[in-house]
Amino acid sequence: MTLEHRVAQLEQSRRRLTLCLIVLVGTGVVALIGSCASEADGGVTRVRRLEIVDFQGAKCAALYASSKGPRLEMYDDNRQLCALLSVESGRPAMLLREAASPAHLGLAIHDAGPTLLFFDKNGKPRIGMSIPTNGPLIRLLDGGGAESLALASRTSGPSLRMNSTDGYERIGISVDESATIAISDAVGRPCAVLGMDRNGQIVR
User: Fold this and answer.
1) CA-CA distance, 169 to 126, in Å (whole number)?
2) DSSP structure class, residue 158
3) Are 198 and 179 in contact (CB under 8 A)?
4) Using CA atoms, how far apart are residues 106 and 86, in angstroms rounded to an integer?
5) SS (H, E, C) 1-37
6) DSSP label at 188?
7) CATH of the domain at 115
8) Threshold 0.85, pTM exceeds
9) pLDDT 10s digits, 57-89
10) Contact (CB, 8 A) for 137 and 151
11) What is the 3-state secondary structure (H, E, C) of 37-106?
């Protein structure tokens, strides 16, 4: 499956999630208006779970409060969960996934900042994007979840790190007051370092 197809499917899931949210909110508003109209002094409509079903009675979406917080779920034509919007322990999160596939996308807001994760067809995280307090970070992971490449933009300057399949850093590039390129051997021992200081002098 191409990246364009995957993005198109995620966009379709996002539109369905937005439409479902509008329908659920509209249903709640109608119910609330009906409740208020039926009681002279006004009132509150309370439900623990609200489900939307199709013409065959199959569940398409559900809005409810779990033990960890509120959740909005959407299901595809195969009755598989394809979109989830939740708030757990005060932290909002969203999950989008392909039909009958572990491949999915997750977005969450943590104390350190927002995080976006892309998972492959085996359910393994492969791309991570986050914005911690010290600057944005993009990480590429191998099939086992180990970091292969990391690109960061810190307050001190940008940096690029490339690791071997064993997890050792092989190439490091950083730019702060000076620019430095470091190359290491198979076990992470420095082999060569080339740098230039702020005055344009080459440092080896």
Assistant:
1) 18
2) E
3) no
4) 11
5) CCHHHHHHHHHHHHHHHHHHHHHHHHHHHHHHHHHHH
6) S
7) 3.90.930.1
8) no
9) 888 999 998 888 999 999 988 888 889 999 988
10) yes
11) HHCCCCCCCCCCEEEEECCCCCEEEEEEECCCCEEEEEECCCCCEEEEEEEECCEEEEEEECCCCCCEEE
Tell me, what's the pLDDT at 41?
46
User: Is residue 129 domain-resident?
Assistant: yes
Q: Please provide the distance, in angstroms rounded to a whole number, between the alpha carbons at the two ends of the chain.
A: 46
Please say whether the beta carbons of 82 and 91 come within 8 A: no
Asked if 197 and 204 count as a contact pair (C-beta separation under 8 A), the reply is: no
Burial class of 73 by CB neighbour count within 10 A (0 to 12, 13 to 18, 19+): buried
Q: How many residues are recorded in the chain?
A: 204
Q: Tell me the C-alpha distance between 131 and 126, whole Å.
A: 17
List the domain range (segments joined by +) for residue 143.
Answer: 102-204
**182 bridge partner residues:** 172, 193
